[in-house]
Specification:
single chain, 673 residues, alpha+beta, six-stranded antiparallel beta sheet, 21 helices, 19 strands, 38% helix
């Protein structure tokens, strides 16, 4: 290809024998040594040798010109293109450039602006070199410089250099001068984010979105029709909150009403920012939250009992009366295992308390402590926020889930895993009729009836559904933990039991019983026991009697129902915890029939009696044997002259007085009697 080299038109030597094949390498080499060809540059690594075009034989020149055109003009164009180089700073500037609405420039526009900058840089180098050559040759400075620049720019291949420079010399000069003055900023088109160029301005966009958010949830075509009726004055549109009427005259442009096609309305409604906005009106809170609202990214705790999450749900299969069993679950977040569950016909506070009772029974059987944090929702639990679910009372930390945001609650995710992973495996009819996944849509056939609300589906008794769910929980807990990378080979239950948080406290049964147990008012009898549900329970020690209020042996006895016999009760008087009372077990009084357990029970009761006797014996030492007699009126005390002090005069001799006056008190007492 042609190029200018030291003001001469040159051509690469290998072009002759490799591409055009007009001669051979040896012939070219021979012609150079003989002087028939003029070599302008020797060949070296990655740099071909250059030959002067006009030193070639005439037939070679004609062949080359027929293939590549006029050598002088092509060489001049090549000389200009050789000055176009990659501008890294321009690429960085346009890549980081932000429009007024904080958007980036489109990628193809970034490429266009970068190439424009490269060509303007090449114009700077080209014109500087051209002016210098003109001065060195004694030429005038008033030559047609920008006509030459325009010719070079217009000669660029648009596929190789997809630029947007103007073709007119004066326009190129004006744009170039702006680029030299403002830099890369001058290349950014002024129409970006310019509302004057929009057919749909902000007011019209507001009207489109407002029509789309009408309560009847119109289609985009309906919005276009409503707008057409409004602009034709066939429909009045007003702001329901302020009463402001929209004026059709505000939507005219140069006296002509702005018309909207259905596609234009659709495009504006489905703009990503507008779509989220209109869906906040047209969608329910749960759907909007799960579709548009950003969410937190988190991971579960490492240790079990660090956090538990509670939630209620309806079991999917129906009972005989058409209603569903209400269930409440407690999940350990780290292991995902169910640690407590309860069932009821109604969703009430007793259902929630039943779940806690079951959870603490299980934790006691597993010899585990109190969970460090509990996650609950306001529904059903609101009434316990000032006592049981006050942070620090039973649980060190309490987290209240935000209403209407089911995805943040861990128990919701576990419910889904249990339902579609295990209930669907062992039970029929599990799923939702509107589920996106066909496999999760149960087959339901309608039965023709007067009320048109009968469906063919299997129904069950309450006890059957509860038993089935208990079985599912067992399968679910004993299945492999889903994070096998963290807990290799371990089931959910194993993670729960073997990976518990070492900082959790032991269960405080007395405190738990007060909040989740049953309460009975009773009295302590004979300094030994109290009676609850026709059973007798022995107080832990006689110290309990010292804690009672004066003349008040009545206490509140709390116990956690277990479905069987109550073994322990916890007693309070007002807010004071008095202790744990164990059930008194009777023993067989017959020595012949007594078993080892009878003898153990006898020993325990004998120890209680001995403790009481010892308490009485020690207490009696505090009491002295006293005698009392009536007191008579005292006789008048005689004046003892010896006790009268008479001041001495100066003439009286000084005698030493005793430190104490000597009085015969025994004689004095007998005289008074």
């Amino acid at each position: 290809m042609y190029e200018l080299y030291n003001h001469s038109v040159a051509i690469e030597a290998n072009l002759l024998y490799e591409q055009l094949r007009v001669t051979t390498f040896n012939t070219v080499k021979k012609y150079i040594h003989s002087g028939k060809l003029r070599r302008l540059r020797r060949a070296c690594k990655n740099t071909p040798a250059l030959l002067e075009f006009y030193s070639l034989p005439e037939d070679w020149q004609n062949l080359i010109m027929s293939e590549y055109g006029d050598p002088l003009q092509t060489a001049k164009q090549h000389d200009f293109e050789s000055r176009i180089h990659v501008d890294v700073e321009a690429a960085e500037f346009f890549s980081n450039y932000r429009l007024p609405d904080n958007r980036n420039l489109p990628h193809d526009v970034q490429i266009e602006y970068c190439i424009n900058a490269q060509i303007y840089n090449a114009i700077t180098a080209f014109t500087t070199n051209l002016k210098a050559r003109r001065r060195s040759l004694g030429g005038s400075s008033g030559f047609n410089l920008w006509e030459i620049v325009s010719e070079r720019v217009n000669g660029l291949n648009k596929k190789r250099y997809p630029h947007s420079l103007p073709t007119n010399p004066r326009s190129i000069q004006r744009r170039y001068n702006a680029y030299k003055k403002q830099g890369y900023q001058a290349l950014v088109h002024k129409n970006y984010c310019n509302n004057n160029s929009r057919k749909v301005d902000e007011n019209l966009e507001r009207l489109i979105l407002s029509l789309y958010c009408l309560p009847n949830k119109p289609y985009s075509k309906s919005v276009a029709d409503l707008y057409g009726e409004f602009i034709a004055a066939k429909l009045e549109v007003f702001d329901a909150s302020t009463g402001e009427l929209f004026d059709p005259a505000d939507f005219y442009n140069n006296g002509v009403p702005v018309t909207l096609s259905e596609s234009t309305v659709w495009n504006y409604i489905n703009d990503p920012a507008n779509r989220a906005l209109v869906d906040s009106y047209r969608s329910g809170k749960l759907e909007f939250n799960n579709t548009h609202r950003p969410h937190h990214h988190r991971h579960a705790p490492i240790y079990s009992m660090s956090k538990i999450s509670l939630d209620d749900r309806d079991l999917p299969r129906k009972m005989k009366d058409g209603s569903r069993v209400k269930a409440y679950y407690a999940y350990d977040v780290a292991s995902g295992a169910v640690v407590g569950a309860s069932y009821s016909h109604r969703k009430n506070a007793e259902l929630f308390i039943g779940c806690l009772r079951d959870m603490f029974r299980n934790l006691e059987n597993w010899e585990m402590g109190t969970p460090l944090e509990v996650e609950v929702e306001h529904h059903l639990v609101e009434s316990f926020k000032d006592d049981l679910f006050k942070a620090g009372t039973v649980f060190p930390f309490v987290r209240w889930a935000n209403p209407g945001n089911a995805q943040e609650k861990r128990a919701e995710h576990f419910n889904r895993a249990k339902k579609y992973g295990f209930e669907k495996r062992y039970q029929n009819g599990i799923g939702r009729f509107y589920s996106k996944l066909e496999a999760n849509r149960p087959v339901i056939e309608k039965i023709a009836s007067e009320d048109n609300d009968q469906w063919k589906e299997e129904r069950f008794h309450f006890e059957e559904l509860v038993a089935d769910d208990r079985f599912i929980i067992e399968q679910y807990n004993n299945a492999l933990h889903p994070n096998q990378k963290l807990y290799p080979g371990m089931t959910r239950l194993q993670v729960l039991l073997e990976n518990s948080n070492p900082t959790m406290a032991k269960l405080d049964k007395g405190l738990l019983a007060r909040y989740i147990g049953e309460r009975v008012y009773t009295s302590i009898r004979r300094n030994q026991y109290l009676q609850v549900q026709y059973e007798k329970y022995q107080i832990p020690s006689l110290d309990v009697m010292d804690k009672l209020s004066p003349n008040n042996k009545e206490v509140a006895a709390y116990y956690i129902p277990t479905g069987g016999q109550i073994e322990q009760v916890y007693i309070y008087q007002e807010d004071t915890y008095l202790g744990c009372c164990n059930r008194i077990v009777e023993y067989n009084e017959s020595t012949a029939e007594a078993t080892p357990q009878d003898r153990e029970n006898y020993s325990q009761q004998a120890a209680t009696v001995a403790q009481f006797d010892s308490f009485i014996k020690e207490g009696r030492k505090k009491i002295s044997k006293l005698g009392v007699m009536p007191q008579t009126a005292p006789a008048e005390m005689p004046v003892d002259e010896e006790l009268i002090h008479v001041p001495r005069t100066a003439e009286e001799p000084q005698e030493e007085e005793p430190y104490f006056t000597q009085i015969d008190w025994l004689k004095k007492a007998n005289d008074e009697l």
